């Protein structure tokens, strides 16, 4: 026996209270419109999803640290075996404790 579960899809406008406007050249609009048509999407849907994908890539590139195996080894070793504090670090720690308790 097969069971079908229907899930309600939210209306397209739910949660879309913000607006974003941009001035573009006719050539830019033509390119975007052509790309949207090739994917069978509206211009708005194409622009929003493309901008969101670009934003996610940018965030990922700036927030994710990729290390080589050697870099990873050096990083972990520095965390597990930190060097002894030098005089400059000791003075900085002393100033911090005086200022912040």
Key traits:
101 residues; mainly alpha; disordered N terminus
Short description:
With 101 residues, the protein is mainly α. The chain has helices at 26-38, 43-63, 69-80, 87-100. The chain is elongated, with a radius of gyration of 26 Å.
List segments where confidence is low: pLDDT < 50 over at least 5 consecutive residues: 1-10
Shape: elongated
What is the total domain count?
Answer: 2
Number of helices: 4
Helix content: 55-70%
What's the assembly state of these chains? single chain
How many DSSP-defined strands?
0
Strand portion, in percent? under 5%
Structural class: mainly alpha
- The SSE string, one letter per element, is HHHH
List the helices and strands and how they pair.
Blueprint: H1 26-38, H2 43-63, H3 69-80, H4 87-100
Helix pairs in contact: 1-2
Describe this structure in words.
The chain has 101 residues and is mostly helical. The chain folds into two domains: 42 residues; 36 residues, no CATH class. Helix content is 59%, strand content 0%. It has four helices and no strands. α1 crosses α2. The protein starts with 25 loop residues before the first helix and ends with a helix.
């Amino acid at each position: 026996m097969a069971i079908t579960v229907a899930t309600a899809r939210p209306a397209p406008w739910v949660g879309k209270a913000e607006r974003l406007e941009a001035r573009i050249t006719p050539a830019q609009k033509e390119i975007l419109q052509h790309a949207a048509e090739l994917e069978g999407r509206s211009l708005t849907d194409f622009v929003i999803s493309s901008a969101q994908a670009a934003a996610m890539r940018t965030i990922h590139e700036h927030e994710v640290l990729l290390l080589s195996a050697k870099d990873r080894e050096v990083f972990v070793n520095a965390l597990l075996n930190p060097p002894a504090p030098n005089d400059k670090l000791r003075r900085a720690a002393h100033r911090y404790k005086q200022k912040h308790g």
